[in-house]
Amino acid sequence: MNISKNFRFCRSTGPGWYGMAWVRGSIAIAAFAGLLAVGAQAFEVAKTSSGAEIKWLVPNMTYLVNSGGAPAGYATAAINAGRAWDGSGGKFRFFYGGTTTSHDYGVKDGKNIVDFGSLDSSIVGQCYRWFSSASGRLTDTDLRLNSTKPWGGTGGYDVQSVITHEMGHAVGLADLYGTDSATRAKTMYGLSTKGDTSPRMLDGDDMAGIRYLYRVANGDDLTAFNRTTAQWFIYSLSKNDVLYSGKAWGYAGVVPVSADFNNDGFAELGVYDQNNGCWYVCNPRNNSIVLYGVAWGFKGAVAVPADYDGDGYAELAVYHAASGNWYIYNHRTAKVTIVAWGFAGATAVPADYNGDGFDDLGVYYPPTGSWFIYDLRAKKTLENNLQWGFAGTVPVVGDFNGDGKADLGVYYTAGSRWYILNRVTKTTIASGLVWGFSGATPFAADFNGDKVDDLCLYYSAAAAWYAYDLTKSYAFMIGMPWGAAGLTPVRGNYGP
Fold first, then answer.
1. Where does residue 120 rank: exposed (0-12), middle (13-18), buried (19+ CB within 10 A)?
2. Is residue 24's pLDDT more than 70?
3. What is the mean pLDDT of residues 410-439?
4. Beta bridge partners of 280
5. Mean pLDDT throughout 224-241?
6. How far apart are CA 41 and CA 26, in angstroms?
7. Rounded distance, CA 166 to CA 174, Å?
8. How far apart are the first and last CA of the chain?
9. Do 28 and 62 form a contact (C-beta atoms < 8 A)?
């Protein structure tokens, strides 16, 4: 095993260098990858001399904090630094393991320690790493901030900022250098300035770096649609790459209706014209047209495409809220199904509520928080006036516990609270869980690819994405930038 050091140099005035690295032992100097460009993202990762990426085999690290002699709030700063990386949308997690009295910095003991102690006078903070020179597998990291340096305020270095940067080294990221403003804005930028707290907040490139090293499984993509320009913006979390940026499909005023219309296992780009009831669907993987100008709908009806007959193809469907009627069209067989299920003021929420592989007809009545669900395949009522919700809530349906059945979820906009019920067992999954803020749009999606829907938010004003894993009780995406202001979030997995 070899030891890799990452440390910061800091002059007595002005900005300081940090992040140089070497490997002791058989390797004279650690090899770093060149700048990696993933779509519009840029970052650097550490590599061994043989070219292996230096990273943890299991995507998590439990650390202990020794606050002896450190500024007040040292442990809290470390916890917040770890949470910043946890919210990047990747698989890696920092776990706070409590306090320790150990000052065994740089000792290979299987303990990852964050402490405060003496370092070379030129160093502000340092990350000491043990890893295999052959595989790059990390086994031990220690972080230390220099006790001889000034901390806090405008005349000292910011504790949380420095720890956040050093935690980037702990996962396998390297420093970035450059004079351009874009590089200087990154947490992993290799210079530090007294009083600078900006590294606390990860840049999109910092997030891309940890997602590259610790990729998520193939789940839903971050997808946003511009209803004015009819452009699609799709980012793959599993690939850590841009799939489409400004791809044109549709025209001004249409609404996005992504679904699997051709039974290939992935979503297509679909739009619906609410004025004339026409559908337009494109397969973005080969740029082929699936449907073009198919008229199924009318003014006043909302699009609700889903697989109502279980054949693997999403049907064209609309719901007319004024009459409560559903109009379903199988675009392959031309079969038409019209069902009265709903009433004025009810919101359509189709989903597979019983796990039989067929989407069911569901409506939610916001004033009373009542649900009405109909099994179209078996032609029977599943729920009739089941109360779950209250005035001021909006429905957010998804499989939040991974049992293969859609759960009843509502989001209270005024209080940013989630309430989720297992419809089958009538047990509460979440009650009053606070996750959100004013102006955020709630929806369900599986962004981490674990086959369980997450509590998701899209803040259109800042083009920022948020996701909370309910089964593990943590937020794994916090403020991830993607898209542009004023876009509409769309759920979909657009393929390998």
1. exposed
2. no
3. 97
4. 271, 292
5. 94
6. 33
7. 10
8. 36
9. no
